[in-house]
Amino acid sequence: MKMRLWKWVVLGMFSLSACTKPPLGPPIPQTEEKTSEAQPLPEGGVERLKALAQMGDTSAQRKLGECYFYGLEGLPEDETEGAKWVGRAAQGGDIEAQYVLGLLYFYGYGLQENGLESVKWFRLAAKQGHTDAQRHMGGWYLEGHLLEGEEAEPVDDLRVLAESGHAEAQHRLGTLYLRGRIGGPEGEAEGLEWLKKSAEGGYERAKVFFQWAIKAEQFSRLAQGGDARAQFELGRSCLYGRGVKADEAEAVKWLKAAAAGGHKEARKLLADIAEAERLKKLAPEGDPAVQWKLGLSYFSRRGLAKDELEGARWLQKAAQGGHVAAQYRFAEEYSKNGSLARDEREAAKWVEAAAQGGHREAQFEMAQRYSNACGVAKDEREAAKWMEAAAQGGHVEAQHKLGQMYAEGRGVEENFAEGVRWVKAAAQGGDKEAQHTLGQWYFEGRKVGKDEREAEKWLRKAAKQGSWEAGKLLEKLKELRGLKALARKGSAAAQYRLGQAYARMDEESEGPGGEEACKWMKVAAQGGHVEAQYRLGKLCREGKGGGEAEGLKWMRRAARRGHEGARRFLYFWEEAKRLRKLAEEGDIEAQYTLGEYYFDGAGLEENEGESVKWWTKAAQGGHVEAQHRLGRHFWDKGTEGSEAEGLKWMEAAARGGDLEAQLDLGKGYFEGRRGKPDIALGVQWLKAAAQGGHKEASYELGERCFRGLGPARDEGEGLKWMRVSAAQGYARAQEVLLGLEEVYRLKALARRGDTQAQFEVGEYYIHGRRPLKGAAPEGGMAEPFVHFFSPSKGGGEAEGAKWLRRAALGGHVEAQFELGKWCFHSADKKNAAAGVKWLKAAAQGGHVGAEDFLRRGAWEMRTNTYEWF
């Protein structure tokens, strides 16, 4: 279900793995609350809106885009069309549209995912003062996600977030000052100030910096006295900027002093620094191998302070020079939330370049990308091509997957022998998944010769490497071996259990199949095992051990021995024969029942086509239950034309007086079974079923009237039908009525000034929390109010806030806390100050949650930075 968001969260998006989407709907930023106050459509409705949009009205274009995204105002739900109109509004200068377009590009909704375009539109909106876009950009650069050529502007975005009180942003900004990336030589004091604010805000890495600062001071005193260990630690701190400003010259001075004192690690670090300096001098000359090493040094801190952006730049130069390892590693910076804006298409471009250069991991990744449509269009043939290239190079995981592709005919011509060859190569190479696959194939014996010894050998290898599935299959193998030993000695019980085990494996597609099940079941049946005779009869009837005649033979033997299941089967089988004769003679009741027999598999093999055939004959003869069955069948089918066919039969059954059909038809009209909802007809048929005595229809009608879901909200009418349903014994209606009595009781107390009652009524309206005390009626639902009275379904946040405010003014601490939080969460930013006031009042009243909220996260709620819906 798509959710409308007024505020989008952006700082958490970088934890997402490559090629995955967040679990949210399209990012048109609009809440339910905003919708109620949203700009109304111009006079003339959606047609006028389209006309204005075509004339270049950017607000109309944005609104039209929103309507297409959510299928509002009678327009079809179309993300591509929605993105098109949002894009036009953005190009026309609409700030909100620019922000939304950035989100669309980032998440790939209605547009091809594109990190560079995403940042471009976020930046445009941020520069014009869009606070969410500014916070978004700040969050983006907080993790160092920079674009090539951008240095100064990201700092402005980061500063916005730092000034709002974000401790991590403060740390990042302070670090940039201390590393000399911004602010120049005079920036050290400002950097330290930001780090101090970050530490005071509770950010652990900033605290660690100041702990290192204390240590650096101690090291400095000891180093001055000639302590080689302290000299080494001080030099390393200066090199990496731990507790002091990064200063390579100062680092080298102290490391040389430590080395002169015999410190081995200092000598090694000096060698790394010298090598890094050598690489820095040679890299501009254009040698890709040197540029590759320098880039890695920036990531690994080998002789250099860690600087992912600088590392990415040198990796890019090496990649552009044709260095395949650099190409593959540089792609990670685009796809794995590295130092560059996430862009799977750009990542795929560099992975493919590395793959063409012979990089085995890159070849395997390209195969995965083509299989999963990650940064490239889905193409199983291309996937197979790259998988084979990696497999030929000895990549064991690629060998396993290529074997499966050959076995399944996916991207290549099906060739099971070739599949076995590749899977065996991977298994011999130590891949546990391939060992499990090979063991399973030998165990099943379906396309390779059945060989339990080979199966056990490979399954044991996989299980030793931690394959849970292989261990599970080994246990089955052991169980079968034990049962076989007993079965061969003549134990009918073991023979039956062995047949059952094989039958289960056949159902789960984990074993040799029905043939083995029938073989052992037959041995047990011939030995007189009654349950085996019955089961064998069923297997034969299913075509796994003989025809229907063979199945009936074993069923009759079991029935003669007193097996109830066999007797019941034979009864239904005989009854089915009788019904068929009557049905063919035109008996509509027999036709309907025969359809039911085919549908349920009672005495006959399940056959949907035969069911529909006999139901149709009965329905045409006026059988209302058959008409209802056909209506439900076609609705559930969901194919083209089935909706109209289902509606035709459902209406026939409803007109014939079938109460279940009337209920289903009423719901169907509310759901839009005719293409769009028809509220009047929905109410008409629900009322017909309710007046006919259908207790669920009475409840459904009562709920819709009470909540205003379709018909106009009419609490009195809703309660009337709810009471009818409850009197008929419908547990849900009984429980809702009990809850309503409690609500009305609380309202009466609240009006008389009871603060606890005022608090509970406020919670009911805002959160839909159930005020009913005590156990629910038997068969009732545990928490009906959460659904039945949720605020967006007929409650009212404004009403809830009114009652919370009364309780808060009366000194109710929990009400003060809840009211404060509600003020922060509401769409009205003016409520933020009131939220602080009420939270402080709750904290002064001893509310621990309010104290914690104010101490840790007030700024977060104020900016909605981490508020997920």
Describe this structure in words.
By secondary structure, this protein is an all-alpha fold. It contains 46 helices and no strands. The chain starts with 31 loop residues before the first helix and ends in a 6-residue tail after the last helix.
- How many strands, which pairing sense, and closed or not: the largest β-sheet? none
What fraction strand? under 5%
- Give the C-alpha Rg: 36 Å
Q: Tell me the number of helical segments per DSSP (H or I, 4 or more residues long).
A: 46
- Unreliable runs, pLDDT <50, ≥5 residues? 1-38, 143-153, 770-795, 857-869
Ordered list of secondary-structure elements with their pairings:
Elements: H1 32-37, H2 45-54, H3 58-70, H4 79-91, H5 95-107, H6 115-127, H7 131-142, H8 152-163, H9 167-178, H10 188-200, H11 204-224, H12 228-240, H13 248-260, H14 264-282, H15 288-300, H16 308-320, H17 324-335, H18 344-356, H19 360-372, H20 380-392, H21 396-408, H22 416-428, H23 432-444, H24 452-464, H25 468-488, H26 492-507, H27 514-526, H28 530-541, H29 548-560, H30 564-584, H31 588-600, H32 608-620, H33 624-637, H34 642-655, H35 659-671, H36 679-691, H37 695-707, H38 715-727, H39 731-751, H40 755-767, H41 784-788, H42 797-809, H43 813-825, H44 831-844, H45 848-856, H46 858-863
Helix pairs in contact: 2-3, 3-4, 4-5, 5-6, 6-7, 7-8, 8-9, 9-10, 10-11, 11-12, 12-13, 13-14, 14-15, 15-16, 16-17, 17-18, 18-19, 19-20, 20-21, 21-22, 22-23, 23-24, 23-25, 24-25, 25-26, 26-27, 27-28, 28-29, 29-30, 30-31, 31-32, 32-33, 33-34, 34-35, 35-36, 36-37, 37-38, 38-39, 39-40, 40-42, ...
